[in-house]
Every structure is written in C-alpha cells, then in structure tokens.
Amino acid sequence: MFSPFRAPDGSQKTIAEVGWEDLAQLKDMDEGFVLEFKCSDTASVRRKIPKIVASFANSRGGWLVIGIADDTKEVTPIPRPQADFSQTVGELCRRHVSPAPPFEARFVEDPGNPGQGVALVQVGEGDFPPYVADGRVEIREGSTSGPATGGELVELYGKATRRHAEVAGFCHRTVFFPDAGPAGAVPLFDLYLYRMGIRPAEAVGRAEVEGHVAAMRACFSRQGMSCHVQHAHDSLILRGTPPLRLGEAHSAIELFGDESMKLTVPAVPLDGVERTRALAALSDFGQRVPEGSVIVDARQTLRRVTLMATVLDRYVRERGLSWRGYAVVYELENMAGVILWSAGEEYRAYARRHGALFCGTTDCRSHVRYLDDGAHDSFRARQFAGSHFFEACGLPLGSHDPEDIQLVDALLSTSR
C-alpha cells in the first residue's frame, strides 16, 4: 500500500510509524490520485470525509491529511479533537458509507504544543466495492473525486466477485493427515483466516517469511509446545509437537507469505479403557453405537482446539496485525456421525434423557465472516474456534432450555 512517508532507508512508513518530523516530507508532494490535503478541521471537511474515504476505497487507496495547506504544503496545525480521531472517522463512515471501508486514522500531535497537530487517514483499496457514500459511488479522478461511470461500476462489482472467489478457493485448502486406520479418516476441525487487502506486488521475500516463522515458533513455545516446519507448494506448515500419545495426529498451522493462515486440529478419539467405558455407559443408556464408530473426548478436543487457536491469537498480537484484515471460516472434516463424549455427570445425565451428542453432517463449512467492518477489533480466534467447534458438533448453544444451558456450561467450564 502506498505511503507518502519514507524511512531513512527509503522504505515506506506505516501510519503508526509517522512522526511530526515526517510531515516535512509532504512539502514536495502534490495532491493527486492517492493523496488529498485539507488545511483545517471544519464542519464542511467533516461532511466530505465519508466521500473521500469511499472514493479512495473504490480506487487504489490513499491518504487524507488534515492540517496541511493544499497550495503551499505548509503545516497548519488543527486543534486536538475532543474525541479519539479514529473513532470519529469510524462513526462518520458507519453512518454514511456502505459497506464499511478499510481505513486507519490517527492524530499526530505537535511536540511543541500537544493541544494541536495533524490528522491522518490512511484508506486501503477496498476488497468488496462499490463503496457507496450517501447514495453515491465515487472514484478518484486526479486530485478529486467524481461519480463512477457505468463501465467503472461493472469493474468494481467484478472486483468484489473475484475477491469472493479467492476467499472461497482459499477455504478449500487441505492439510494432509494419514488415515486413522480401521476407524477411517481423521476427524478434523479447520479454521481458515484469509488476510484481505494484500496485493501480489506486495509479496514478501525469504527473509521476511523466515521472520514470520520465527514469530510463530515463539508463539508455540509460549504455549508450551514445539513445532516442526514443513515446506508446501506455496506455504509453510507448522505441525505442533506437544506431548501427545504415540500415534496421534499433530495439530497444524499453514502459514502463507501474506500471513493468511489455516488451523487444522485433529479431534481426540477415545481408545482402550476409556472407549470401553464410554461404550458401556451408552449401552446402559439404551443407545446402540454402530461398530467402528468414532467417539471423541469432548473436553480434550476442545482443549486442543482452543490451545492452538491461542497460538494464532498470540501471533496476530505479536506481529502487530489487525483481526479487521481477515475473513474467517470454520469447517469440520470427516466428522459425520462422530460421537462427542464426556465422563462428567452433567453430560451423562443429559445423554440418558436425550442421547449422546453427535455431528450430524460432514460438510459444515460456515459462512464467511469479514472482520474488516470495524466491529471486530477484539476478535479472538480462541473463543471463536472453541464455541463454534461445539456448536457444529451438536452442542445446543443459544438454547433457552434449562437442561441445554446446564450442559453447555458444564462442558465449556470443564474444558478450560
């Protein structure tokens, strides 16, 4: 993404890295396709912000700088806003722009007078145009904005369609696990995290990829695990190696150069004495379990899912990424008919009355959730993965039945 601000080594600075001294770099720049100046923060300028932001999002992105004279490029500090400037821009866009455009905003204060400074708004190229501001679709035309023509509207809709197809394609990726033997394929929980807004021109080099891997290794380590790195066609697969039982499939995180990720977690099947006890209990409840059925330890499986999703949470925080830049999908694989089991008395009591929980379908990929609408800054993969794993496996989340509520509370509390 373009930035008008440069570091001493020539690399582009992000909005978070811009300091007061960097504003001098704008002296030699003119307003244009990706840059617009406003000298003051007036009510008129506030009314124009949604249109400017939408036009950048419909084009190639850009920067709005408030506190720079558009003719002389001199810094004309504006008073520090009473409210957080980022929240102000977000509220303006929420009320006037649809869908929500991708942007970041901050106020850079004057070191000599903290009560004043310059406001920056960095807008990304939108993934799902057209972005409509107060009923109008506008794009950048030189240094201003103008209404999109019919042909331009077709191109904008086509871009959104292609982006949807990219997300759908990413969510069909498969990490290979050997078959579990006579019981069949390994039951898996998948969590797809597709990073939006990254363009091919921004492909990263080997050194940066190695930095991503080092950061992910550190996150595994902080969760008490090591990992083995395996090279794939266009990604790296980091397979967790915690102290699991011999022969168990290890969880895996597929990591891409643009920091898209796929989490794959094998369920924890019961075997040996534990399986025998579960079968005996189910028989006592009057339930016949078909021979060869897979019975999954609900507590241990959820623990594994949330443990691995916590690694993703750590990675996103430590890399300074934003959940708003991701599309999220979850899926269960090879889970049709798999029985969930817990030795807890609450589960046993529930199973006596209603039967054991089991996964009713093998193809349960969720709808895509786009987290760039500004409402998911605190999104946590750990919470999302844990609750949706159980929900997809038949746990009655959201039910008003007291028995269902008691079961949900028991399983979630004993799984921590």
UniProtKB/TrEMBL annotation:
Family matches, as Gene3D superfamilies: Schlafen, AAA domain
Domain Schlafen AlbA-2: 34-148
Protein keywords: ATP-binding, Nucleotide-binding
Family matches, as Pfam families: SLFN_AlbA_2 (PF04326)
GO molecular function, a single term: ATP binding
InterPro entries: Schlafen_AlbA_2_dom, Schlafen_AlbA_2_dom_sf
Origin: domain of life: Bacteria
Record PANTHER family: GLPR-RELATED TRANSCRIPTIONAL REPRESSOR, SCHLAFEN ALBA-2 DOMAIN-CONTAINING PROTEIN
Name listed for the protein in its UniProt record: ATP-binding protein
Organism: Olsenella absiana
